[in-house]
Amino acid sequence: MALILACLGPSCASYNERTAMALDRFESGRFGEAIVAYREDGATESKFLKGVESGTVAFVDGRWGSALKFFSQASRSVRELEDQSLVHPERALEGLAAWTVSETLTDYQGEGYERALLHSCLGLTYLALGQVEDLLVEVRRSNALLEAEEELYEVEYGAGGMGHFISALGYELRGDLDEAYIDYKRMEAKGLGGALVGSSLVRLARILGRENDLAAWTKLYGEGLPPSPDAARVILIAGVGAGPLKCEGRLDVMTKDGLLAWAVPQILLRPSSVEYVVLEANNLKAKVSSVVIEDVGRIRAKNLEDRLALLATRATVRTFLKRALRNEAVKEHGEWAGLAADIFTAVSERADLRTWSTLPDTWQAARMFLPPGAHELTVTAQGGEEVPLGAFELEPGETMFLMARTLRSRLHVQVLGGNPLPANQPTKAASSPVEG
Question: Is residue 342 pLDDT above 80, yes or no?
Fold first, then answer.
């Protein structure tokens, strides 16, 4: 018992407590310090979390090489579990330690939806690096893992929107419009992407000559103004808000036979003042608002709800097993052993609060087709900060990506593509852009 208490000692601090400083530095925009804090020994106590937390920080800071390195480390740490869960989804459930001693003694390898999102984030990083083929590989694995998770809990999460969206972008960049069309249809079937996906379906159905589909999509989403063949496009992908954390729900009952304790995780919401992000082409007096393509907070809450019965069952098994051990200790060593057993029960019964804390509450996206030429762009977090990006020269058919993240009321934007123009060079008003 003394040995077990000694082992549990370092884990008494919850994940939220151990990583509070790192998370605060991230949300304050002190990205270099946050990466160091997340990678310190003892901060996450999980190779998966060390990789995804520091990878997310590096991505927001535009350190694409570091983000790829950290996300890849996280991916390698759970590769064996992923391979098993793709064949036998039930293999993803935790092992014996979670049943007998404490949830926190198991190696945290991510919830199923977190592992799926990891591969979407890897895909997004490859997109930033211009490696389209690698993007598509990661998204296919993300979709397969999500399907396995839904099979395990016999539920449809309405998830995978970000994976489908960046997959569609990859196929469009490669010129495989039929494949892109399939991804947009999958998003529409899940109710994700709203007008952004609707306009994409109308546009591609028209280009591909899918007349029956076009009639159906235009009835739902309108005719839409088709972009000119040489139009440039600006695509905004934004992480908005702060994803929920976990807190402990606990019940302690003292009986004549000793302490009974139950502890399970609960969702801790983190409200944000920012609801969406707006992309503006100032010289055209045009703007488009982002729409949700992945509701991370809702998925996290739903996933925990699906696991709650299992977690409660495990807590019940543990507490009665510990009471049986207490009774045996009292018989052999007297009441002092019972007191020690009660202390062990109180200390060891902890809810597992580990979670990927740097994820946004939602992933959102927006797209604007612009005539080639010079354009002055601004991105605004609605309810937060406005970031003037300056003027850019866009070539015919060029795609510019804006990777954005809201942290508290601040907005951080990384620009990929376009030719930056001097601040004093004027831009010209041109024909109206096409949005969506």
Answer: no
